[in-house]
Amino acid sequence: MLDAYVIEEIKRREREQRREDRPSVELPLPSYPDEGPRGHDDREPGDRDRGVVIIDYSG
Fold first, then answer.
1. What's the rounded Cα separation, in Å, for the pair 14 and 9?
2. Which of 9, 21, 22, 53 is deepest in the core (most CB within 10 A)?
3. Rounded CA gap, 11 and 26, in Å?
4. Average pLDDT taken over every residue of the chain
5. Euclidean distance between CA atoms 15 and 9, whole angstroms
6. How far apart are CA 29 and CA 32, in angstroms?
7. How far is the CA of 1 from the CAs of 4, 5, 7, 24, 49, in angstroms?
8. φ, ψ (nearest 5 deg) of residue 56
9. 3-state helix, strand and coil shares in percent for the chain, rounded to the nearest 5
10. What is the pLDDT of residues 25-39, one digit of tens each?
């Protein structure tokens, strides 16, 4: 019979092995070079684009 520590160590190594075998996918993220830091906008507060979303739950 194996100690609990040895069993946990074997399980940990198996999880690491599975993680290494799993392929990873890199998403192509668009870059916006003309955009400044997020949250910084030189326009006046009233000039910013705005939108409204209406959700009708009465359906």
1. 9
2. 9
3. 28
4. 77
5. 10
6. 10
7. 9, 12, 10, 37, 68
8. -100, 110
9. 35, 0, 65
10. 888 888 777 655 555
